[in-house]
Amino acid sequence: MRYPIIIHPDDKLRQPCEPVEVVTDELVQLLEDMYETMLAHDGIGIAAPQIGKNIQVAVVEIEEGDRFELINPVIVKSAGSDIDVEGCLSIPHVYGTVERPDEVTVRYFDREGEEMEVQAYGYLARAFQHEIDHLNGKLFIDSMLEQIPEDELETYMEEHDHD
Ligand SMILES: [Zn+2]
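A: This is the predicted complex of the input protein with zinc ion.
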């Protein structure tokens, strides 16, 4: 099922989320529902608070077929720095640049309850950080350097295409 997206400003987007203690069938269903909701909105990532759930769960898929389901994710290592443009399903029509490490290692649990670790670079690293920020009540606009008008997005992307 699709959930409505919580739109900024909303207190639900500003609270640190609770860790998941055990992976239940309900949680697995929630992961599916989050994915469906994300795709329905053409998103590349979604975090549980964006559908009103105060738990440390996020889904990321920047390349079709390469879905990451992150339960209790933490960044254990980060390196480098890059500035690139971000948007957010909870902040429609706002896009802007954020400076972030361009390489991260994320430790998380998958839907089987297995502890996993993934090393990510470039936009995937950025997407992980954006979603993990959500789980800490942070939004990209908090650290936005420069807002990019929606009608200039495409031009910006072309000029800054470095992956
Ligand atoms: Zn977001």
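Residues 28 and 111 are 6 Å apart (CA to CA). Strands lie at 45-47, 57-60, 68-79, 82-86, 96-100, 103-109, 115-121, 144-147.
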